[in-house]
Amino acid sequence: CWSCQLLPGQCDEAASHAILDRYVELGGNFIDTADVYGEGRSEEIIGSWLEKQQREKFAVATKVRFGKGINGVGLSRHHIMQSIDDSLRRLRTDYVDLYQIHMWDEATPIEETLSALNDLVRAGKVRYLGASNVKGWQLQKIVELSKSMGLNKWISLQAEYSLLCRGIEWELTDVCRREGIGIIPWSPLRGGLLTGKFKREADAPEGTRIEHVTKKGMVFEGVPDFKKVKKDDKTWDILDVLKKVADAHGKTPAQVAIRWLLQKDVVSSVIIGAKTLQQLEDNMGASTDWEITEETMAELDTTKSFTVPSSLLTSKVSRKGRVP
């Protein structure tokens, strides 16, 4: 992913292909990436794997908005048309199943963006459209303009959502529920914090994303600074309940955290970011042959964290922006 430029432990092509192979064996068929992850390398790795598969068996998603240069960034018609062709070339396919705006673009009229994306659907380069990292009013505007302009309905919202980051419940979940838009949470484990391996009295485990971000003093979407986490009583209350639920179900904390999302009525799928086969096996164990009871879901729901993704707090984003 894009974070390989900043964070440790990313996979090379061989390891990535091994994880994808096992993912498919376990029943996975949805693959999400973006044109800027690894400056295009993520799409290339997926593409070299995808060309050896039966393409129609997979739902492949990518994103557009970020990049370099005056015409190489944003959601203008120019950038969108260039970006889709570049993504298709790297992915070694003639269409993507889901094409998502990576974030709102204040510098481009949304009508221009909607029209350009709709043209991609008409051209057969894109099957469906979605949004990522937008606010409630922005998503509602997309919905209403698509209706009034007679354009294809957008079907998905990709947003940061986890037991420790529930800001989208203030408004976005309502928009999605009313408009029939499926939510695809990213960072479901809050950068690894919900895996159960972090202890309040100890430093962040070496080699983890959180340890790297904390040590470098970085601000990175979806990965918290552990120095701040240590002081947050509410976070540890949630982690205590998570561990209790995991022990009661004979599951890992990560599996419970992902399962909690999968049982939300507005969630269509959950994006996992495993970098080892062991992590993949654990994450995939959240989806099969068990459920969290209604009573336990209610217990997890009421142990609330009010962390809000920065994309929901920022009123305006520069042309460059930040990439989740």
UniProtKB/TrEMBL annotation:
GO terms for MF: oxidoreductase activity
Coiled coil feature spans: none
One Pfam family in the UniProt entry: Aldo_ket_red
Gene3D superfamilies: NADP-dependent oxidoreductase domain (3.20.20.100)
Keyword Oxidoreductase among UniProt keywords: yes
Keywords, sorted A to Z: Oxidoreductase
GO cellular component, one term: cytosol
Record's keyword annotation contains Oxidoreductase: yes
Domain NADP-dependent oxidoreductase: 8-302
PANTHER family assigned: NAD(P)-LINKED OXIDOREDUCTASE SUPERFAMILY PROTEIN, NADH-SPECIFIC METHYLGLYOXAL REDUCTASE-RELATED
Family according to the record: Belongs to the aldo/keto reductase family. Aldo/keto reductase 2 subfamily.
Protein name (database record): 1-deoxyxylulose-5-phosphate synthase YajO-like
Species assigned in the record: Branchiostoma floridae
Phylogenetic classification of the source organism: Eukaryota, Metazoa, Chordata, Cephalochordata, Leptocardii
Gene coding for it: LOC118422995
